[in-house]
Amino acid sequence: MKRIRFFDIAKGIxxxxxxxxxxxxxxxxxxxxxxxxxxxxxxxxxxxxxxFILSGYFMHPERxxxxxxxxxxxxxxxxxxxxxxxxxxxxMATLNHESRxxxxxxWGMAALYGSGDVSDxxxxxxxxxxxxxxxxxxxxxxxxxxxxxxxxxxxxxWVIACFLIGYGSSRYVWxxxxxxxxxxxxxxxxxxxxxxxxxxxxxxxxxxxxxxIAFLIWIIDIVFFDGMSMAMNSYGPHPILAVVGSxxxxxxxxxxxxxxxxxxxxxxxxxxxxxxxxxxxxxxxxEDDVLLQSWQSYLDMLRTLFPxxxxxxxxxxxxxxxDFAGAALLHYVPKINEWFYPQLAKQHQLNRAGIVHKRxxxxxx
Length: 365
Fold this sequence. Notes:
Helix content: over 70%
Number of strands: 0
Radius of gyration: 21 Å
Low-confidence stretches: none
Structural class: mainly alpha
Pfam families: Acyl_transf_3
Keywords: Acyltransferase, Membrane, Transferase, Transmembrane, Transmembrane helix
Mean pLDDT: 91
Organism: Bifidobacterium adolescentis
Protein name: Acyltransferase
Order of helices and strands: HHHHHHHHHHHHHHHHH
Largest sheet: none
Distance between the termini: 21 Å
InterPro entries: Acyl_transf_3_dom (IPR002656), Nod_factor_acetyltransferase (IPR052734)
């Protein structure tokens, strides 16, 4: 099947928003600034919802759940990334003359619990959060649940109930492995599935004023943004606006991606980034966790060297090549690269199918 390039472009925009949003958080912790807060509001208003909605767009929940494929692409990538984090924090502890045993215990517990952020509601004390790869665990649960609900009557009711249970229960206890985040993410996957089923994009194309409505809703959501985080089922004081705004933001980014698709340089660049978004996410997580204790001193040094450049931009510029280099490295690791780059696995399947076909029909042209 031919890839729809503007969807890759949208994922490229979203993964850059993840890195930029985390850079803004670090910069704001170091020195609170309105610019950093605005960037956080923009990035967190759409980036994770977009990934879940697009994942649902390409799902076929009426089929059997593919345990092997989903486990490799989500659970195995989580395990490899967590292992890299443990190696990295051990090296950093050695360089900083700190306890390697303590670092391994704290980060090992974070990896085992699989929480996107620190919480007081965990079943047992967990000092650190594993960070951005909570997405992989949540997506696994969300896909599994949607496959189950799709085979039941009144799927929409089951999806809503799952969201409400995940959201409500997370106010009292935060379960391991991002289970509740996955329960809420089912709704976003289902929206993506429905968008494909009813060809929503074609409808929006025929009724262009919807773009304007979506953009206005997204702006309102950004203005009233107050800490939406799908990682912890936190949708702020206006949860309905947060959810509707994230859907509107996703639609707007897809529209922007369609415009980028018409410009060769922009389209090529962002689509390549989008195709590598899973690898970039994991490489960014490794960098973010391993350097967690050091970023504040790095930001102080960057501010001294470049006092005129916004701190958010400096942090983003420094992180980006590190994350891209890590993603590129994953591309060249045999076998494992197919987990982080699903298109490689598909290409290898096509190549193997071609070889089998040639063996079966050697004279066919």
